[in-house]
Structure formats: structure tokens, C-alpha cells
Design brief:
alpha+beta, single chain, 172 residues, Thiol Ester Dehydrase, Chain A
Length: 172
């Protein structure tokens, strides 16, 4: 999971989620570890690909919520990803996803990524980029492929995240 909590959900319009970046996350230690030979100190940061994934999860929840999570929503395309700052331990990312178009086949979303550096909390959240995504609802794909009946996209982890964020999971 690359988001920690959903703060706001306006059905079929907007979702706001946050991710607290912590030094306890293992992936930070690989990006970038200290290198004694080059005399470089460790510089842990969250890879941009995981920032994009956080937005994909946020926007995917928004798109999935529109159909009561009955559709299997998958990321089809990263239309645009522009990020100009690296998240480091101790910051909070805020993802704001908005739906631009929504059909039975899929959706297009626009996203804004903001960062709060708790060492400079008085500055508030600062915009660090934008990410536009396209999603496919795979049960309505044009290839005719059949997928399992159970919703493998919105796993138990997503359901727990939504419930702890105050978002009801539909009954079966």
C-alpha cells in the first residue's frame, strides 16, 4: 500500500489521500544507500515510481468507488507524470485525484501531488507535481477476455484502508 489514509471522498469527483514517508520503510534504504568507496552518505528517498503508484491507488479507489467496487479497475496508462521533488523520510504526501471522464470501459483522472515537510510545517503543503492516469475496467474490455469473478484488485488490504478511513465497503 502506498497510501495510508483517505481523507476525503466526493463520489465520482475527487479523492484526497495521504502517505506518511517513514525511515522504517525498507525501500528507502536502497534509494540511496551509503557508498564508502565514493564517500557518499546515505540519502534515503521514496522512488518516483512509488509516488506514481500512490496516485494510482488513490485515483483507482475513486474510480472503483463510482461502481460500488463491483468492477476490476486497473491502471491502463500513465498519461503524464511530472514530479520535481523527492520525498524523504519525515514528509507527508497528499494525493488529490479528480475524475475527468468516466465510462463503462474506464476512466481518465488528473492528480496533484503535494508534500508537507514536517521540519518546515509552517510552509504547509507544497505542490511537487501532477500525475494524469487512465484506468480500464477489465470486465468491460474490448478483447473479450474473461477474468475471475472475485475482485482481485480491491483486496483485503484496500478494504481495510477504506474502512479505517470511514468509507463503507459494499455488502456482497
Amino acid at each position: 500500500m502506498w497510501i495510508d489514509r483517505v481523507l476525503e471522498l466526493v463520489p465520482r469527483e475527487r479523492l484526497v489521500a495521504i502517505k506518511n514517508v517513514s525511515l522504517a520503510e525498507e525501500h528507502l534504504h536502497d534509494h540511496f544507500a551509503a557508498d564508502a568507496e565514493l564517500r557518499l552518505d546515505a540519502m534515503p528517498l521514496m522512488p518516483m515510481s512509488l509516488v506514481v503508484e500512490g496516485m494510482a491507488q488513490s485515483a483507482g479507489i475513486l474510480v472503483g468507488h463510482a461502481s460500488g467496487f463491483q468492477e476490476k479497475v486497473v491502471l491502463a496508462k500513465v498519461a503524464k507524470a511530472e514530479l520535481d521533488r523527492d520525498p524523504t523520510p519525515g514528509v507527508t504526501l497528499r494525493y488529490t485525484a479528480t475524475i475527468q471522464s468516466l465510462t463503462a470501459q474506464g476512466a481518465a483522472t488528473q492528480g496533484v501531488v503535494e508534500m508537507l515537510d514536517h521540519a518546515r510545517a509552517s510552509e504547509g503543503f507544497v505542490r511537487i507535481g501532477s500525475i494524469d492516469l487512465m484506468f480500464s475496467q477489465v470486465d468491460h474490455n474490448m478483447s473479450g477476455l474473461q477474468f475471475p469473478e472475485h475482485n482481485f484488485v480491491f483486496s483485503e488490504s484496500f478494504q481495510t484502508l477504506l474502512r479505517t478511513s470511514g468509507i463503507d465497503w459494499p455488502s456482497a
